[in-house]
From TrEMBL:
It comes from Chelativorans intermedius. Residues 8-181 form the Isochorismatase-like domain. It is an enzyme of class 3 (hydrolase). InterPro entries: Isochorismatase-like_dom, Isochorismatase-like_hydrls, Isochorismatase-like_sf. Pfam families: Isochorismatase. It comes from the Bacteria. One of its GO terms (molecular function) is hydrolase activity. Keywords: Hydrolase. Its EC number is 3.-.-.-. This is Cysteine hydrolase family protein. Transmembrane segments: none annotated.
Amino acid sequence: MALRPEKTALILIDVQSAFVERERAGERRNNPGALDNMVRLLEAFRARGLAVFHVRHASTEAHSLLRPERPGFQPIEAVRERAGEPVFVKNVNSAFIGTGLEEGLRRDDARTLVLAGITTNHCVETTARMAGNLGFDTRLVEDACYTFDRIGHGGQRETAEAIHAMTLSNLDGEFATIETTNSVLAALNASAAA
């Protein structure tokens, strides 16, 4: 993986307390180290002064944990934005619809987007698909996002691991390149050494 850091932005998607609440309520997820990896990416981008964009979901559904007036809307503290890091609030799955995200990225001349967040098969996937369609070099960090078990279309239980893997398969090579936290950090280090 090669990166031009000055043309690269990290986008953290929906890293919000509602998902911690879901885990505490007994829902099962994959990638137990995903939040730690999000923090590693965030720290690396911040240390190099690179662009960081935060996205939050403000649900319009009456009983959603992600409604803006509920505690679940708040970011997970470990990845809370700092002064100067833009926060875009969306009401649908894509971070590009109804927000100024694309304009912000174009203004910063970002060409490569490094995506991480929650959940892999919903807002992360939708944002990755749109980023690819908008012409961005989209890199989805597989170990810095996660999802939950769910009941599938036919009534069978689908594991978070299977859902996550299928999402990556659907995106890879068409909408995004699948990366790991280590591959992104290695690329940042290599570009600094060049």
